[in-house]
Specification:
Helices cover 56% and strands 10% of the residues. The protein has 16 helices and 7 strands. The protein has a 7-stranded mixed β-sheet, with helices on both faces.
Length: 484
């Protein structure tokens, strides 16, 4: 009886994961269909409008100077460019910001250093605080790790000035892509998110989201959506959906690239992923009823809900991860696996596993211009995704249970290319013992791999290797980061 229960649970979770894989194929179909349809170029305005650039910072002493330098070098009429340094810092960053802002003001820049009495609402609260203190109709936002190109505003503002457009999102670039294996893998993940997901959703008329930075908002769209709110950890995703439900259109400009620094330390990356995963589930729980009851076509509503629910896949993935060893043992006891199970497993492989390979192969080809040798990262990419299942699954579970947590920033260290180090820098992610459980999982799959290898059971070896590599990489990198 227990064998039947475990096998049924295993198959059901694989089918659900397969449905997420089919959704990846669907996004690829939309991407292929619409990627060659360029956006029309909007007219250049006779007079450039007033723009406020908001720079929310929290303990960013290593990258603040770089951020301010890039911001004041924006190619935009100086009298129409207003900069807000929204400073919630609790360390020496505030003194540095005050000094740099005073220097820039003396050179004629319109720049304000804004300090709140408390950090209520975290980043959302800071953005709202700045919004109340500007007369500009257009608001650009850059996180501290971004280095926008000088033509950023002149590339985006004309699009935003078109009637009905509430937000314009640029694509993220990666100034330290080649720093390490971890940054290489992150870059591929993010390229897929922007190039395939954003382009497919935008060009096909579906909902997509502002990514918290490297975008420009129309102030009225923010107000019409109900303003910045901090009841989720992804205030950007939350506001994006509320604004589109209010009738505003969004644009994605893949040719406008804003370079940024990727987290190079595993604990920092896991913290970022935990925040994004938890926040997206919180947003899904908050808005799915409004989306479902809206007047948008059914296919638009369905895709929006699936988009917001994507991180449930990590929670679901943890179930077959735990069950993989006993399921293979059950197959051994069964002798010959029934042909119906073979068909199910094959279909799940096509929909779940193969979809990931195809999805990221297309990403690599279209973002880097060639597959080889970058396609060699695919096994590590899959292993990292598997290794993140505990981290992101825990985030989804916390959101489902209503567990509240504060907005934990991702440390930035000014890593550019292969230069720089995080090992001797001051900022560190919060301590966690999650890596111990991840290491136990790695040992669990090592046991399974060794046992089934001794039994001459080879068909499951590739999956055991992926799970082993993923959990060893995640756990040992986390342990190394904490020890440093």
């Amino acid at each position: 009886m227990m064998q039947v229960v475990l096998l049924t649970l295993y198959i059901l979770t694989l089918i659900v994961l397969g449905l997420f894989g089919i959704h990846k194929y669907y996004l690829l179909y939309l991407y292929r269909k619409y990627k060659k349809n360029p956006l029309p170029n909007p007219p250049i305005p006779d007079e450039w409008p007033l723009v406020t650039v908001q720079l929310p910072i929290y303990n960013e002493k290593y990258v603040l100077k770089r951020l301010l330098k890039a911001t004041v070098q924006l190619d935009y009429p100086r009298e129409k460019l207003h900069i807000q340094v929204l400073d919630d810092s609790t360390d020496s960053t505030s003194r540095l910001a005050e000094k740099l802002v005073a220097l820039l003001r003396s050179k004629g820049y319109q720049i304000d250093h804004l300090r709140r009495p408390n950090r209520e609402g975290f980043k959302a609260g800071a953005l709202s605080y700045g919004l109340e203190r500007t007369a500009a109709e257009y608001i650009a936002i850059f996180d501290a790790d971004f280095v926008p190109d000088p033509d950023f505003l002149k590339q985006t503002i004309p699009h935003l000035m078109q009637p009905g457009i509430g937000m314009v999102q640029a694509r993220w670039g990666h100034i330290n892509r080649n720093y390490s294996l971890l940054t290489q893998l992150q870059a591929i993940f993010l390229d897929a998110h922007f190039l395939i997901e954003h382009l497919a959703r935008h060009r096909s008329g579906r909902f997509f989201n502002f990514n918290g930075t490297a975008g420009v908002w129309r102030k009225q769209a923010i107000y019409d959506a109900g303003g910045w709110q901090h009841d989720t950890l992804t205030e950007d995703l939350d506001l994006s959906y509320r604004a589109q439900l209010a009738g505003w259109k969004f644009l994605f400009l893949p040719h406008v690239v804003a370079p940024a620094e990727l987290p190079a330390e595993m604990n920092a990356y896991k913290g970022q992923q935990h925040r994004w995963a938890k926040g997206s589930v919180q947003t899904a729980l908050k808005l799915y009823r409004k989306i479902w009851k809206s007047n948008f076509p059914l296919h638009i509503r369905m895709e929006a809900i699936i988009h917001l629910s994507n991180n449930f896949a990590y929670l679901i993935m943890s179930i077959p991860a735990f069950l993989l060893v006993p399921i293979v043992k059950i197959h051994i006891e069964m002798g010959v696996v029934p042909w119906k199970l073979v068909i199910i497993y094959f279909l799940v492989f096509l929909s779940a596993t193969l979809s990931v390979v195809v999805y990221y192969s297309v990403t690599i080809k279209d973002s880097l211009g060639k597959l080889w040798p970058h396609v060699l990262y695919l096994p590590f990419l899959m292993a990292l995704g598997i290794g993140l299942s505990i981290n992101n699954g825990r985030a989804a579970l916390e959101a489902l249970l209503g567990h509240q947590s504060e907005f934990n920033r991702t440390p930035k260290y000014r890593l550019e290319g292969k230069r720089g180090t995080w090992k001797k820098k001051f900022y560190r992610p919060g301590k966690s013992y999650q890596h111990i459980f991840e290491l136990l999982m790695a040992g669990y799959f090592t046991y399974g791999w060794a046992y089934f290898l001794s039994q001459n059971i080879y068909y499951s070896m590739p999956f055991f290797v992926l799970f082993m590599v993923g959990f060893y990489y995640i756990s040992l990198s986390s342990l190394y980061g904490q020890r440093r």
